[in-house]
Design brief:
Elements: H1 3-16, E1 55-61, E2 67-73, E3 80-84, H2 95-98, E4 107-111, H3 126-129, H4 131-145, E5 151-155, H5 157-169, E6 176-180, H6 193-201, H7 207-219, H8 228-240, H9 243-249, H10 258-263, E7 268-273, H11 282-290, E8 294-299, H12 306-309, H13 311-327
Parallel strand pairs: 3-4, 3-5, 5-6, 6-7, 7-8
Antiparallel strand pairs: 1-2, 2-4
Helix pairs in contact: 1-6, 4-5, 7-8
């Protein structure tokens, strides 16, 4: 691969790493069993308290033996949503959604991608460069949790992972797709100059340089900045991620998943922060330009993380989209 191309891909991986963890509060409750359906609890009526429901942890192995850790919540017969986080993050990214009363009537599933959180962290770069491996772990989670026809939510790298799954397994069993500031094509014209500036620093092998750049990079992910405590937790999760994830992903030969989404027959909701400093809205507009059953929703008070920065609106839109997708 030419050095210029490899440098750009490294920057793209750094861009995808802008996905940030939303582990902003302690978990309210967790299920104790790793098998069966999670209990479903209705939200407290007309209160300001976050929705509280039992979480059920699970562990599943992907086709290449990588162990994946996740959690499920809600009635197993309810409409389903599978959340896929971004690079250097974890399932904790979706804490606000798991606690959202607007999403209380749905089956919610989140998991840690390979190399992240509590999932296995292979040292081989090959574990991350092959798009099929990302696709296989989504399929493994769907099977392990008994999802029948979920909506896939893909944030940043998660959008790439969702596209990889559609590419390999097709969309017949996917009710809809919500792409959140997603990277679906590794192309320099769809990334901002600021994102390009992080190309070297966020993938540096110099620990001090990479540490400082990671903090700056996370700050650039928000229009509404997190609190100091929230940012500290996000940085901890970033530090748990295997270095091989970045180094392997930049070597992928699957550079463009736009055709996959355009060929997908189901509905697509594109969620994008108007103040995203790293991904041009043109990335989302690629899909709406060529997919008849798609809609772009711009979040005027958000940067790269609208589900975190404007969670109430995001939850309402995701609930409406998922309900309609399951009725189709």
């Amino acid at each position: 691969m030419p050095p210029s191309r490899r440098s750009f891909l490294a920057g793209s991986a750094g861009l995808v790493a802008l996905a940030v963890d939303a582990a902003y509060a302690p978990r309210r409750a967790q299920g104790a069993s790793a098998t069966g359906a999670a209990d479903h609890a209705a939200p407290a009526p007309n209160t300001d308290r976050a929705f509280v429901a039992a979480r059920q942890p699970f562990v599943v192995r992907s086709t290449d033996g990588v162990m994946l850790a996740g959690e499920a919540q809600g009635d197993s017969q309810a409409p389903e949503i599978l959340f896929i986080h971004g690079l250097r993050q974890s399932r904790l990214s979706w804490e606000k959604q798991f606690a959202d009363p607007a999403l209380a009537g749905f089956r919610l599933v989140g998991f840690d991608l390979r190399g992240h959180g509590d999932s296995d962290k292979p040292a081989s770069l090959d574990a991350y460069r092959d798009a099929d491996r990302w696709a296989d772990e989504v399929a493994a989670v769907i099977a392990a949790t008994g999802l029948r026809r979920p909506v896939l939510v893909g944030w940043s790298l998660g959008g790439y992972v969702a596209g990889a799954h559609l590419c390999k397994y097709g969309g017949a069993r996917i009710a809809g797709t919500n792409l959140v500031d997603a990277v679906i094509r590794l192309s320099p014209d769809l990334l901002t100059k600021e994102a390009g500036d992080f190309t070297r620093t966020t993938t540096s092998h110099d620990l001090a340089e990479r540490t400082a750049a990671t903090a700056d990079f996370l700050a650039a992910c928000f229009h509404r900045q997190p609190t100091q405590v929230e940012m500290q937790r996000m940085l901890v999760v970033n530090g748990m991620t295997a270095r091989a994830v970045n180094e392997g992903f930049v070597k992928t030969t699957t550079l463009d998943l736009e055709p996959v989404f355009k060929a997908y027959a189901g509905p697509i909701l594109l969620t994008h922060g108007s103040h995203d400093r790293l991904v041009h809205v043109a990335m989302s507009e690629l899909i709406t330009a060529g997919h008849a059953n798609s809609r772009l929703s711009l979040f005027d008070e958000s940067g790269h993380s609208p589900f975190y920065e404007e969670p109430a609106r995001y939850g309402q839109e995701l609930a409406a989209f998922t309900t309609a997708a399951h009725r189709a």
